[in-house]
Amino acid sequence: MASAANKKFLAISGGVGGAKLVLGLSRCLATGQLSIVANTGDDFRHHGLHISPDLDTVMYTLAALNDTERGWGLASESWNFLAALETLGGETWFRLGDRDLATHIQRSQLLAEGHTLSQVTRRLCQQLGVQYPLWPMSDDEVSTVVHTGEGALPFQHYFVRRQCEPAVTGFEFAGIDAARPQPDFMAQLASSDLSGVIICPSNPFVSVDPILGLPGVRQALRECKAPVIAVSPIVAGMAIKGPAAKMMAELGVPVTALAVAQHYQGVIDCFVVDESDAKLAASIEQLGMTVAVSSTIMKTLAEREALASAIIELAESAR
């Protein structure tokens, strides 16, 4: 078993739900012990700017700058730009705060100068004092498309502009077959000193699947020497945050932690369910994975730390 100083974990994260657990992990693990890879299927261009919602949510959270009330964006934000844009008849459905706008402008400028998204993210994190490596899942463009009863919608148009209203019939990740996984991410998966991979309680379909769908990632997870642990985003038949439960129901998938475990079958070794879903443990174990029961609702920082600590202990026992 690795000593405390040698523990190294890789977190796979989407936006708000993933960022909560990432923050808890950062409180339990020192610099050099935690790396994070975030979904970029949600990335899009808006008003000529490259916007990376999930990367920014994790970055702002680790920098202690996030708006904990809304769950996204920066705290103490102002909206003068958006008000002026509305006066001019511009599109304001995607809310860009004045301070948040600086991030998107800087990212877009650096990308235009030829820097990769990984290089830009590292630079932004350094400027904001984030000490943990945060990687985009790929430096190549992958765009999540939500197929609905009204036709195909770019993810942000479905999620923000339409407020998840159209019924979902499926998903597509445009560009994924040609995209290359971020090199540091793949190197970490192959590392012999990795203690655990943690799939955060993010939406399995639109936050985690784009990462798992990158060429070679599923195989790398299967071959990974460290245990791969996923945390259910479904608790007692409901999603704690976001449209995962609605999507599952519309796709004809039971809205249960068991269904999420089945979705990850063949990729993960351990599955963490909330105490309210303890009765599902035996059925999940029949899928060939270890089940841990814990409190997975993270309303407070103490709850995030407690769940992170439990997952770290689970990884040690699984090794």
Can you describe this structure?
This protein has 319 residues and is an alpha/beta fold. The protein has one domain: Rossmann fold (3-Layer(aba) Sandwich), CATH 3.40.50. Helices cover 40% and strands 18% of the residues. It has 13 helices and 14 strands. The strands form four sheets. A seven-stranded parallel beta sheet has the order 5-2-1-9-10-13-14, sandwiched between helices. The protein has a three-stranded antiparallel beta sheet with strand order 7-6-8. Helix 1 runs parallel beside helix 2, helix 1 crosses helix 13 and helix 4 crosses helix 5. It is globular and about 60 Å long.
List keywords for this structure.
globular, alpha/beta, 319 residues, Rossmann fold, 14 strands, three-stranded antiparallel beta sheet
Strand proportion: 15-25%
| CATH class category | Alpha Beta
Neighbour order of strands in the largest sheet: 5-2-1-9-10-13-14
CATH architecture: 3-Layer(aba) Sandwich
Number of helices: 13
Which sheet architecture does the biggest sheet show? 7 strands, parallel
What is the mean predicted local confidence, pLDDT?
Answer: 95
Which value, in Å, is the CA radius of gyration? 19 Å
Number of domains: 1
Question: What global shape is seen?
Answer: globular
Category by helix and strand content: alpha/beta
> Count the strands?
14
Ends apart, CA distance between termini: 7 Å
| Low-confidence segments | none
Kindly state the percentage of residues in helix.
Answer: 25-40%
Full CATH superfamily name: CofD-like domains
Q: Which sequence of SSEs, written as H and E, runs from N to C? A: EHEEEHHHHEEEHEHEHHEEEHHEHEH
Task: Enter the CATH topology name.
Answer: Rossmann fold
